[in-house]
Amino acid sequence: MYNMSALKLYIGNYNYSSWSLRPWLVLKKSELPFTVEVIDLDIPGYKDKLLALTDAGTVPVLEVNGERLPDSLAISEFCAKAVPNLWPKDAAARAECKRVVKLMHEGFADLRNEAPMNLRRRTSGKMPKACLKDAQDMVTLWDELLSQHNGPYLFDDWTIADAFYTPAATRFASYDLPRSARSDTYISELMSDPDYLMWEAQAFTETHILPETDCVNL
Ligand SMILES: N[C@@H](CCC(=O)N[C@@H](CS)C(=O)NCC(=O)O)C(=O)O
Fold it and tell me: What are 88-145's pLDDT values in tens digits?
């Protein structure tokens, strides 16, 4: 049995590290106690620090009693094994939820690359076509799921899927990406979540700036 008081999550910058935000939200919702260590990304020597943590050379990393587990989805699965309710209870809904989490974990590359998470940013510049296509596909996915459930989340109650789509929701806000009224309500729900707001408050205090993602206009 794990000593749950010994969980430590290594994350990247609050403002930029979308992969870190996901398991951080899952850990908050799990109510498992954990501590956080920030590794400032993209400064000299950061990669060595990441590689000293795990061979993956990325954050997030969860330290559990001295063992280190990389990858946002693996960490989320770890939490879901420790506490109930992070996946839907119903087997069919759970399978569908895992499918859409996998979609986010592996896909929407153009949205991720062309509209990097940057919580401080607000712009309405023209976005590349491929990025708009990913955004449209995501809105279609959200609208389908929201119409099949009672909301406010993709599978009624909050699940790991909502953690995985929260960084994407912030991109719609940062880059003013087109969305339906239903998806707009969902985005607002995710971005007014009290745990998300705690994370965002940290991002607003960070002083590290990546010029290529922080310029005022695209
Ligand atoms: N599949 C990994 C991706 C993790 C990832 O790419 N993290 C970024 C930060 S958001 C990173 O550590 N980048 C390090 C680098 O660019 O060298 C996950 O789900 O955790």
Answer: 999 999 999 999 999 999 999 999 999 999 999 999 999 999 999 999 999 999 999 9
Q: What is the atom index within ligand 1 of the atom nearest the CA of 19?
A: 10
Q: Is the CB–ligand 1 distance for residue 15 below 6 Å?
A: no
Q: What is the pTM of this model?
A: 0.96
Residue with CA at minimum distance from ligand 1 atom 13: 58
Residue spans in the chain of domains classed CATH 3.40.30.10: 4-82
Domain boundaries for CATH 1.20.1050.10 within the chain: 91-202
139: left (phi over 0), alpha (psi -120 to 50) or beta: alpha
pLDDT for 57 beyond 80:
yes
CATH domain 4-82 topology: Glutaredoxin (3.40.30)
Q: How confident is the model at residue 210 (pLDDT cuts 50, 70, 90)?
A: confident
Q: What whole-number distance in Å separates Cα of residue 119 and Cα of residue 151? A: 25
In this structure, which topology does domain 91-202 adopt according to CATH? Glutathione S-transferase Yfyf (Class Pi); Chain A, domain 2 (1.20.1050)
pLDDT digits (tens, 9 = 90+) for 141-185: 999 999 999 999 999 999 999 999 999 999 999 999 999 999 999
Q: Is 183 in the pocket of ligand 1 (CB under 6 A)?
A: no
**Which runs of consecutive H residues, i.e. helices, occur in the chain?**
18-30, 46-53, 72-82, 91-106, 109-114, 129-148, 160-174, 181-191, 194-205, 211-214
Q: How far does the centroid of ligand 1 lie from the alpha carbon of residue 43, in Å?
A: 15
